[in-house]
Amino acid sequence: MHRVSLEASGSVLVSGFKKLGSSNFYQHRISAPGNMHQIIIIGAGTSGLMSALRLAEAGYDDILILEAEMRIGGRILTIPKNGKWLELGAQWIHGKGKNPLWRFVQEHKIPIHAEVNRDGEGRFVRNDGREMPSSILEETMVKLDFIHDDCNKFAKDPKKFAQLSIGEVFKKEFDTWLHEEKIGHEPHEHTEWRRQFFQWYIKWEECDAGCDSLDEQSAVSWGQYVDYDDDTSFAEGYVSLLNKIKELLDKTNVEIKLDHAVTSIQYDLEGGAQLTCENGEIFQASHVISTASLGYLKQHHNELFQPPLPSRMVNAIESIGFGTIDRIKLDFVAPFWDASNPGYMILWDRNINDEPLNRSTWVQHVVGFDAVIDHPNMLMAWVSGEAARIMESLPDQTIATQLCDVLRLVTKKSLPDLKSVDVTRWYTNPFQLGVYSYRSPKTDQKGLGPKDLGEPIIVLGQPRILFAGEATDPDHYGTVHGAFTAGEREAKRLIDFFKAQ
Asked: For the whole prediction, is pTM greater than 0.70?
């Protein structure tokens, strides 16, 4: 594993660690001993919380978490709605089986929902209200799902496929199928239905992958992602996971300070690092675990770290993508859709990609409207990329009006009154600046990836600054269980270091 050694002027090698019941302590030469801690974790999302929990379980008791927002959870955000829970952040557990998050859920008996997810289902309708014939829909979806599954082989030969994006692969395979089996063998209208469905499918995959375009999504990383299948969700919202972790942390000496945004990390001091917060408070630590989002690092790494981060990590931060996905949840006084087949997937005219994106046209990039578990009067719209970033700048009422106009267009119905609208704005959240990471072909060509984001900064043989978060996990990037695993990984790295002293 590549490590970086920083030879800072005046630095000294310090040894030992503070463990519960131990008489060994770090010796420091930095000020404000009242704010001195063995380990400081930046961020109280899943990664930060799990780092703290695993360290505390191993017996290390001098741990402080500094969280910028007024709540824990990071990109998990569950709110009460209509007597139930509503997810405005992470929604699903992506797979069971060997998924480390799923094992934690089972171990602690966190309730799971009996219903399965139904995203991307419902009626497939053109924006003129015409519904796609079921036989054409089924055959085309089967073909595209086959291409999707076949893409997993690309990780087997990264040299061959490092130049390719998933978008290129999908387009090549789909066009080949159309020209060899469909064009000239069926009515032109059927082929047009397939092309419109292909455009929808690509936008749906872009929402799933977190990228602005599948042309920016690495084919190699697509195949390297570990898929556990069988998605599920929490019966009492993702907040039930946070509550369980917090319940376990409350039995330890871990301290969490909310509303403490870290603005500076000076990590070449003798014996430790000094962290300055936006509110003026200063803390010192022997070791720091940063779980800041990749979006935040992209915008702030230059002023956040003193001295600057190693060049390879900077290249990884700047090269690896961090996408925007938003969901808008429309709560009506009554449903107007078929409860047995809820949802509307929109097959937009194929020329919409040629129109400039603005405050009026963003809505033409909405993938569709899904049913929402536990909320029978609610539909959820998905939008990603630049369209989502434009949407976030609009008032809630404008967004709701534009989406209802689309629903009237495709259903040819008068809609019941709208009770409320809940809009996510992850790109404009100053501490997230997006949702999750993805790799591009250019990233692969540079030989960069999540491992480079997860490399600790070693100062005189010690892991001074460690990095966690979903973007640092090579196998599970873009997921809560990726953040979960990365947090455990960095806790283990420190525990192993301490044991070796």
From this structure: yes
